[in-house]
Amino acid sequence: MHIARHHAEWLALIDVSGPFLSLPVLIRAFPDGLDKLDSTVTRELRLAYEEWLDNAGGLRPDLAIHRAWADYVLRTILEWPAELIVEGPTLPASVAVSMPEHGETLRPDAALMDPATGKPRLLVKRLASGQDPEKPLPGARWKASPVSRMIDLLRGADVRLGLVTNGESWVLVHAPRGETSGQATWYAALWGEEPATLQAFRSLLNTGRFFAVAEGDTLEALLTESAANQQEVTEQLGLQVRRAVEVLVGRLAAADKGYGPHAVGRGGRAWAL
User: Fold this and answer.
1) Is the dihedral of CA 110, 114, 115, 118 positive or negative?
2) Gap between the Cα atoms of 257 and 92, Å rounded
3) Which residues pair with 97 in a beta bridge?
4) Torsion angle of alpha carbons 209, 213, 216, 218, nearest 10°?
5) What does the angle CA 214 – CA 163 – CA 212 come to, to the nearest 5 degrees?
6) In what helix (H) or strand (E) does residue 222 lie, and over which residues does it extend?
7) CB 192, CB 183: distance < 8 Å
8) Do 183 and 174 meet the contact criterion of CB atoms below 8 Å apart?
């Protein structure tokens, strides 16, 4: 019960839209709770965040500080090795997705690569500090938000996971082809106030979750298992509702048969004598 409450609490502190990780799957994958964080790491993170926040709120934000903050989260907090991150011209051609109907080509800023397959496991899009991930890009003819664009990019590139960030919001996008997409948003401002949210962010997106666990425990596998779990719950609820309706209809039919020739009307209803 304690572990269930632990997971339920951090889930309540992030914004989730669409399918995400189910509680039974989290309990199975993290039976002892989320990964612990070293106090030195959390202290350094707080200092780095405060520096980024001061810069983002200034009259002339330094883009280098903005970029350094995002890199710090990916490489230090999530422990993504530099050799597994590709950016700019080194990105594979497969992650450039043309959208001719909108006159644009979607590309990530970086990708976490799988050394075993040479294919991307997660695509990253960095936004300006003031850009809301859920609102259209200023001046763009195509009014899709960065998160919506990431969904199209993932499906077009056949990559399941994406991360969209403006430095404050960190949106994990899951968009498997032919299935409903889902997303979960963490807020950097909460990482210091609610450490469990930082633990969850790190536990789910650190490099070990992609390359150092059993195949059934990778983030993609946990999301797939959760979707199946949630579908099973939906089907069970549907079956329960159907059975309840059948019982109700049966009782109504039995009551109707009980109305004999001696039934009289009262207030528009039949009352058996």
Assistant:
1) negative
2) 72
3) 106
4) 10
5) 20
6) helix 219-257
7) no
8) yes
Q: Which candidate, 232, 250, 230, 251, places its Cα nearest to that of 240?
A: 232
* Gap between the Cα atoms of 128 and 66, Å rounded: 8
Q: Is 205 helix (H, G, I), strand (E, B) or coil?
A: helix
Could you state, in chain order, the average pLDDT of each consecutive group of 10 residues for the chain (273 residues)? 90 96 96 92 96 94 97 97 95 96 96 96 97 95 97 97 98 95 97 96 97 96 90 41 54 62 45 35
Using alpha carbons, list the distances in angstroms from residue 168 to 14, 64, 101, 174: 13, 16, 31, 19
pTM as predicted: 0.84
Dihedral sign for Cα 242, 246, 249, 251, please: negative
Q: At how many degrees (to 10) do helices 2-11 and 195-205 cross?
A: 90
Which two three-digit tokens encode residue 244?
């309840």
Element (H, E) at 169: strand 169-174
Geometric angle at alpha carbon 238, from 234 and 244, rounded to 5°:
145
For 52, 145, 155, 195, the CA distances from 189, given in Å and listed in that order, are 11, 22, 30, 10
DSSP-derived 3-state class of residue 240: helix
Contact 71, 233 (CB under 8 A): no
Query: What pLDDT is attached to residue 29?
Result: 96
Pairing status of strand 161-165 against strand 120-126:
parallel
Q: How many residues does the chain have?
A: 273
For position 229, what pLDDT does the model report?
Answer: 75
Nearest CA to 87 out of 103, 101, 100, 75 is that of: 75
Q: Two tokens at 150?
A: 């990431």
CA dist 141 and 128 (Å) reads: 18
Which amino acid does the sequence have at 74? L
Q: What pairs with residue 15 in β-bridges?
A: 185
